[in-house]
Each structure stands twice: as structure tokens, then as C-alpha cells.
Amino acid sequence: MPEPFTLTETDLEDLATGAWILGTGGGGDPYFSMLETKLLYERGARVSVIDPLSLDNDDLICCVGKMGAPLVTQEKLGDGEAIAETIRRMEQYLGRRFKGIMVWEIGGANGFQAVLGGAILGLPVVDCDAMGRAFPQADMTTFAICDLPAHPWTMVDIRRNSIIFTEAEDWSWMERMTRRACTVFGSVAATCKAPRTGREVKTCTVLHTLSKALRIGRIVRDARRTHQDPVQAILRAEHGVVLFRGKVSDVQRRTSEGWLRGTLRIDGLDAHAGHVFQLEFQNEYAIGREDGEVRVTVPDLICVLDTVSGEAIGTETVRYGQRVTVVGLPAPAILCTPKGLHHVGPRAFGYDLEFRSLFADTTA
Amino acid sequence: MIRAGIDVGGTNTDAVLLRDTTVLAAAKQPTTAEVTGGVIGSLRRVLEESGIAPAAVDAVMIGTTHFVNAVVQRRDLAPVAALRVNLPAAARIPPFSDWPADLRDIVRGAVFMVRGGHEVDGSPIVPIDTAAIRAAARAIRAAGIASVGVAAVFSPLTSQAEDTAAAILREECPDAAITLSHQLGRIGLLARENVTLLNASLIPLARRTVAAFEQALRDMGIGAPLYITQNDGTVVRAASAAAFPVHCFASGPTNSLRGAAFLSGLTEAVVIDIGGTTSDFGALVRGFPRPANNVVQIGGVRTLFRMPDLLSIGLGGGTIVDPSDPERIGPRSVGFRLLEQAMVFGGATLTCTDIGVAAGLIRLGDPRRVAGLSADFVRRALARIHAMIEENADRMKTSTAPLPLVAVGGGGFLMPERIAGFSGVVRVPHQEVANAVGAAIAQVSGEVDRVFTGVGRPEAIAEATRVARERAVGNGADPATLEVVEVEDLPLAYLPGDSLRVRVRVVGDV
Known about the structure:
The structure holds 2 protein chains of 2 kinds.
Chain A: E1 5-6, H1 9-22, H2 31-42, E2 48-50, E3 60-68, H3 70-76, H4 80-94, E4 100-103, H5 113-121, E5 125-126, E6 128-129, H6 142-145, E7 153-156, E8 162-165, H7 171-184, E9 188-197, H8 198-204, E10 206-207, H9 209-225, H10 230-238, E11 241-256, E12 259-268, E13 276-282, E14 284-290, E15 293-297, E16 301-306, E17 323-329, H11 338-344
Parallel strand pairs in A: 2-5, 3-4
Antiparallel strand pairs in A: 1-2, 3-9, 6-10, 7-8, 7-9, 11-12, 11-17, 12-13, 13-14, 14-15, 16-17
Helix pairs in contact in A: 1-2, 1-9, 2-5, 4-5, 9-10
Chain B: E1 2-8, E2 12-19, E3 22-30, H1 36-50, E4 59-64, H2 66-72, E5 80-87, H3 101-107, E6 108-115, H4 130-142, E7 147-152, H5 160-172, E8 177-180, H6 189-219, E9 226-229, E10 235-237, H7 238-243, H8 251-264, E11 269-274, E12 279-285, E13 288-289, E14 296-298, E15 301-303, E16 310-313, E17 319-321, E18 329-333, H9 338-341, H10 352-358, H11 375-395, E19 403-408, E20 422-427, H12 434-440, E21 444-452, H13 457-474, E22 483-491, E23 500-508
Parallel strand pairs in B: 1-4, 4-9, 5-6, 5-7, 7-8, 11-19, 19-20
Antiparallel strand pairs in B: 1-2, 2-3, 9-10, 11-12, 12-13, 12-16, 14-15, 17-18, 21-23, 22-23
């Protein structure tokens, strides 16, 4: 079992790079959260990371993240204190103290929220999450897949307005209520979701995803430093496949029901010259077709990377002319079960398609 | 109409004189430490050469990299007070975060954060704390700080908070130069605030520089109005430029792009400006440089504002070639020491110019000094140079449709005759002063970048266009010549009521 370790300042940068790649186009750039954590580090804060398998079954773990629009974070920047506050409210409500913090979503800016909260509260971060990537909705988690209760939730805004959702019929009701509240709060809020026991964390999360994000970030940094191809380095280390390489030739976006939806067209270069790849997204990249044939769908991770730098390119910022490589990374096994696919498979995104994993061995 | 265009670069100051669309005269002078010297010298030469009387000049357009160089070289910068209207939002990442320490130590005069700012839907986060703003203003005056940068949360949506702060600052610090972030930037508080603070820091230098230009023109008997060229390929009146020196940051490459468009008659093309040290690639869309929509680092600071999309590589006439490996080219250059250090000029350093001479592409210096290079070495070095140009030119394209490639700048001999993915390589007259031509022909613009909520797309675009036209006229454009050159809309995730971000740019003749 891996020993607990303390994140270094370089780790913070690697985590930002890796979490952005695991964001599969959504979740927002972790830059501001990384910067905020670095400022806390300058004042002496340190964050330790513990292995979920080391938890006792009745340890209590809080599960944090931000809800809202990445655009709003561009203006309001980070607010780690709100994350800390939402945890304190939950502890008050429960009358119990937490043993550690985890995130529900490792991909994008949310991948940093446990680290940020941990830096302020001095709580260790548990090396796991409930998506193994980023997804647009609260009911797209391993907790929902495992039928764990969705309540209670606490939610805090920048003014320290707060709500405790004491009960919800199911995850989709919780999603509906909290989404509405988040809009009232100014489209960004810090949230502590239903707390989890050590036993639940060990059995109902995607394990070691913080390490995975760190590892990916480190690989990209090393490759850049030694002038090697960062995309190839990611593929090797994470058992990924190149789906397509080319140049973005068209982007169409629209918002509906609060999500950024759209399509991205990539014209092939090099080995893919003469072919066309089309990606559809709902905040994150959801499905990819090559010359009209479906090549990849959720829950496999569809990452659009800058061909040269290996940097992730998000659905809000992707633009004409960028040289990109579309990479598929294996979805966590729990998402590929029939129950998992019900929550996060192509049909959960409105596509009448069977999930066919890119990877013969879906337990990767 | 007679217009003078001058481009003050790091190495050379170039000038041209145009009668309508005809180049009457062109001149190149070394840039002087006191930039006005080169300006006066080059302007005198084109006037003499063309026989035009100073009083007959109708407009003077100057482009200068003076301000961006000040940031890069950390000189002539004034200390700035940062006033952020944000609390309780954005409290954890204060102004000047993530700046290089040396620059921060020079520019950071004081930092204030007060309650106020707006939500994404335009409602106030909390009531604005005018008492705290007044207290900050008094502290700024007491500290003797004369430049202030103000940034409020979501000010690109509504400038209310920044306008309120500015009014109080003007009362309390009547002599301070105030920069408001909504005048400069887009959504993205930190990057917008960064460029606001840089701007505030440069205002004293900009005022001095522009005043010196105006004085120089008066001394020469030129009564014509002075315009300064901007990052987007347009010009503004000198007084306005002095208030926004950051809008001049990329005017050198931008003027080259605009000059290339004018001299070639092309509106859709990729342009390469091959100089002594670098090759700059840009793209023309409707005759203007394509804007960058991403964060641009200036002197190590992340900024997000109106900048052209540029790509710069270490390849020029002075770029050093490894004598033991013809495929190892650059990025180091002998720079302005080309005339001493290149082999054909008697030096000992092998440069791209030497390769060009050895290949018979250009006649310079003493070709016998490179006769010892093997034909194979020269061929391979040239192939590598061409591959570098081809790859980077292609990166500027936005579709596979073949575009023309326009080559300007002194290193043009390094251009291949043909290049894959392009319909042809276009060479133009006066290519060595394309940047000064670009300055001379520059138009005036107005821009809007705003989020609309609860209105339809056509209404939002119409409203943005109306405001952009108004701004262009306010900047000195002839209303009869206004033309919309850019319309972009982006729906925003999560926001209620079909929120749409619209950007419109309008240009017109001076």
C-alpha cells in the first residue's frame, strides 16, 4: 500500500496539468486553484495525500467540489475558503469531524478542490474520486452508480450564504435542486456532497486518481524538458490510443439547459490525411466519429491535446487551426458495468448507441 | 491625401510617405536611444526625397515597440496602486499574483481590495463600499503614487463599479493617471487586471514619448494630426494612445501584416516577416491581423487583451548555423552584429545570410569567404530553413484551402519559391518597409466584447455593432467609411437565459 506523501510545489503544477487532461475538455482550467494553493504554500501550508485503502471502515470522509460555470471562475478566481467553509458546515450539521477530503471529480478545476481545502483545514487528501474524469452532472458519479444516498449536501457561496440539503429523493433530484441554487448564488458555489465512510470510499470510488493526474502531469513536464513528444509519453504511461491527428477546421457551440453543447471537426494530417474526425461535446467531449463511423464514446476518456505541447484543450477554448491529437484513455472499470453505463454511457448523454470500449480489456 | 508612416523597431526606424495609395518615398534609419531622433531623421529623408513640404502632410502615423520593450527590459516603469473592487469574491489571489518578482517589485506600489463588483447576470455581488474606495484613494495620494489600475469583477459586463471607483479617485487624486480594466480587457479578471496594471505603469512614459513625437513634428513644421498604431492594425489619436500604451505592444508585426495586405492587395493570406533575428508569422483575415483569443505572456505576465495571433521563430538573416551540422539552425542570432560577424562580411560565424550567399540567392559581402562550404551542406541547410518556414506558415492557416503566402522583411531571400499548402509565394514592392507602409495606411476602429443575456442572437449582434460603430466614430473615423470587419459570438455554458458573448469590430478611414 502506498505510503502517505506530501505534495511539493512542483506537484501542484503537475496536478494542474494532469487534472486538466483528465477533464476531457470540461471542468475548467485548474490554473486559479493551483495559484491559490501555491500562495497558501508560500505561507507555509502543506498538503498530505493518503491512500484510500488505508482508511478504517468507519472513518468519515468529505467529498468536495465547486459547481457552476468555468467562465464565472475566470472572474471570481478561486475561493478555497468557501470550500473550507462548506466542510465546516457539514461537520456542524453532522456533529462529527472528518478524517480526510476527497473530490468527486478529478478532471478540471475540481480536481484541485480537496488540495485547496486540505491546505486550509490541515486535513489529508484521499487519493481517489467519484468519476475518474469530468462529467457534467452530479448524478454521473460512482456514488450514484453504487446507489449510495445523495444527501446531505452543504453549499456555500462567496458571501457565505449557505444551504443544507438535508434530503433528496435521488441523485437526479439533488442535481436539479442544487443546480437551481447554484444559479441563484451567482453560478458558482462550493459544495460538500454526501459524506462517505471509509468502507464506501474503498468500494465505491475510482481509486488513486489524484496519483494518476500527478503522474500524467509529471510525464508531460518531463517530456517537454527532454524535448520528447508529450503525447506519446502520455499514451505509453496510461495505455492510451491515438484516435486521430489533425487540424481543427470547424467549431460550433450552443448552450442548452445550462450546458455547452457543440461539435468539433478535425481534418486529418500525416497518417490521417484525407479523413475527418468529428467530436460532439456536452461540456466534455462525449462521442467521436471518424468519417461518420462512431470510433469512441463516453465513458472512455476523450482528450483533445495540443499535438506539440501535450496541453489539454477545452471545449470552451478550442478554436480553428489548432493542431490537435485526439487521444482515448481507458474508462475506470466501474463506469463500464451495465449499472455504470446507465449513468454515464452514451444513452445518458442522449445517444442511442451501445458503448464499445476502445480497450479490449476494460479493467485497465 | 498625404500620409507619413513610421515604424520604430528595436533595430531600425522605417518611414514612408504615401500620396493616397502610392508610395512616394521610403527610408530606413537606425533606431536611436531617444526614439524621436530616428523618427525625425527618417521623416526628413522621405520629405526631402519626395519634395513634399512638411505643411502638406495630412496625417502622421507612428508605430513603436518602445512601451513593450520597457516592460521586457524593466525600465521607465512607474509604481502603480492596484484597486480591485471584488470582495468577497476573488479575495485569495490578490493583484500582482504570478508576476515575475523583479517586475512586481518595480510596479507594485500598493494593493487595495474593497467590497463590490458584479455577478455574471449583472446584479451586484454586494453593495459597493464607496467609503473603502475613498480611504484607498486617500492612501494612494498620501503615498505619492500617481498611476492607478482599477479592476472590478465582471466589469466587461457592466462598468458601473469601475466607473464609481474612478469618480472617487478623480476627486481624491486629481493628478493620478487612472486605467480601468473594462476599457482594455475581456472576461478573465486576473489577466485583465494584469494588463491594466502594466498600462497604468507605462502611462508616464507614454505621455512623455507622445509629447516628444508631437514636439518633433511641430519643430519640423508638420501641423498634421499624429496617430499611433495599435495591436489590431488600426490607429488612434496620440492623446488616446498615451492613455493606453499596451495597445501599442504588437504594433511592429501588426504593421508588417497590414503593409503586406496593402502592398499585395490580398485580404486573406498568411504573412511572413523575415528579419535579422526572427521570422514572424501572422494571418490576414479581411485584411486585418487575426486576433489571438488566448493568454499572451508579456514580460512574464499573463495578459488577455486585444493582440494579434502571432508566431515567432528564431530564423532570420543573422541566425547562426552549426558548421558541423547543417540541420542545426538557430535560435541564436548575431543580431545587429551581422555586418561584423557573418562570414561574408569577414566574420567567423556561419549565418543564414552566408548560406543564402553560398546558394546564390543573394549577393552580399564577399562570396569567396563561403566558397569552402560543400554544395551538399548548403543544400541541406537551405532545405532545413525551408522546412521551418513551411511548417510554421502552415500552423497559421485555419483551413486546408490553399492561401497565398506574402513574404516581407529583409530576410526574404530565405523564402522558397513554392511552399506546400499555399497557392503561391507573393513578393511585394517596398517589402523592406512594409511595416511603415502598414502604419501609413492604418484606419481607425471601434470594438465591443460583451455578454448579452435574454436577447436573441440577431438583436445582440445588432446592439454590439451599434456600439462598435459609435466607438469608431468617437476614435476619429469618418462615419461614411465604417465597415464591420469582425463578428464573433459564443454561447456561454451554465448561464441562464441563453447568454451569448458577442464581439464586433468596426473600422473606418481617418
